[in-house]
Amino acid sequence: MRQLRDADTNRIRKILSIRGMHTVLELRGRSCADRPLPSSRKSIRSSRSFAKKITERADLEEAVAHFTARAVAKLRKRGLMASGMSVYIRTSYFDGSPRCQETYSCALHPPTADTARLIGLACKGLRSIFLDGFRYAKAGVMFYGLEPESGVQGSLVSICEGTELQERRQRRAMAVLDTVNERFGRDTLGFAAQGLCSDAHWRTKRDHLSPNYTTCWRQIPAACCGEPS
What we know:
The model is unreliable at about 35-40 (pLDDT under 50). About 40% of the residues lie in helices and about 20% in strands. It contains six helices and five strands.
């Protein structure tokens, strides 16, 4: 404890973030009540009703991976990390088929916004709640316990185990992923677990989707004029 109190604050901030530095200052008797407050947003979720009922676990895993990637991208865009996650699946309330509704939840230590890690955890959770013989109509992923990324304290365990460098590399990889998708369009880059989302039969039907005349060149109406007689 004495070594931590007397440690260089700049080095502690680099290793354990701003909250680690506040801990050192508190040990020195300095109040740090002005540290960043937790995010006012309580949760972020991504869910969807399927165009067709799903009976195969592989299809459901693909959908859950896709929803997870969407929700985690929202987390990073808002500068947040999650300390808890839930995955849920359910059948339809209205088609008369046998009903099933299951939820899997887990804590995330340390808080994270790493898409690769969270897709793996979401699919693992899905496998623990999936039941054969049901026609699933909807699935979703929710992240809660949100904290500002700048205020999440680093882990001494990761430093001792030598995984801190890998975590920094993962954060840089996620930044590249977000930059490419923002520049070239959503889902330009993704994870194999998401499958080919454009061809997935679980996607919501969009036969009557309004055209994007103001944002998509391919959908701008074209007027053809014939040659004068």
